[in-house]
Amino acid sequence: MSDVIRLTRTEVRQRNTRLRLREVAHDLISRQGVDGTTIQQITDAADIGFGTFYNYYATKEALAQDALDCLIHNTGQRNDLITAELGETDPVRIVANSVRFVISELVHNPIYRWWFEHVDLLVDRMRVGFGPFGLRDIEKAVAAGAYHIIDDLQPLAWSQLVWLMAAGASDIHSGVHAADDEGRMVEGILRVNGVDHDRARAATVTALPPTPSLPIDFAFDLNDETTTSPTSPTSAP
Q1: Claim: this prediction has a pTM higher than 0.85
Q2: How far apart are CA 39 and CA 101, in angstroms?
Q3: pLDDT, tens digit, 9 for 90 and up, residues 32-43
Q4: Is 1.10.357.10 the CATH classification of the domain at 60-235?
Q5: Closest CA to 62 of 42, 86, 91, 89
Q6: String of b and e for 120-146 (b: at least 16 CB within 10 Å)?
Q7: What does each C-alpha distance from 87 to 20, 82, 91, 94, 237 come to in angstroms?
């Protein structure tokens, strides 16, 4: 018989308040940005007292980070849904599609506007939040002989890939590069990881399906291993 952890009424109330704060923060920040959103607005929308906020978060930015972590995990899950929908098995195309999808999300989702102004913080959250998905796909590409990574340092390759994704999206967002440069950006990322020219080019020209819809799980906990280990995208229903 498995042990069942039962929460007290106080713990349930605290959990629900935290989820409400994350959901409200995501909504407000998506429309107003982090700087344009006040703690008072958040607590009013969440229907809690102003002082209660500080029982859960030390700063508005800490709450914004939690909401971002939930969104990043949701993006990883939706990415896997795209891979499953396409029935894709080529590890190079899986990585290419994933990077294209993430760059598109970064550019078009308004919640990332503030984070582009703090790209070091954004990269930190992406590195950790997308890590279970990205490292899984890199490992498969290496195993298939498609990636050639120096000294097999896959975490280093993943860190470099995240910086390249964030930089590419930031350049498109700021107008340094056009949105249709995205394919060349992804091709360059693949070639940095040792994919040959023709294969890298071919992996970036397939049209992606519409972004699948999936509700954000605001109960997601980045430190909970049971919620951060994605299944193989090719085995998803």
Answers
A1: yes
A2: 32
A3: 999 999 999 999
A4: yes
A5: 42
A6: eebbebbbebbbbbbebbbebbbeeeb
A7: 36, 8, 12, 10, 10
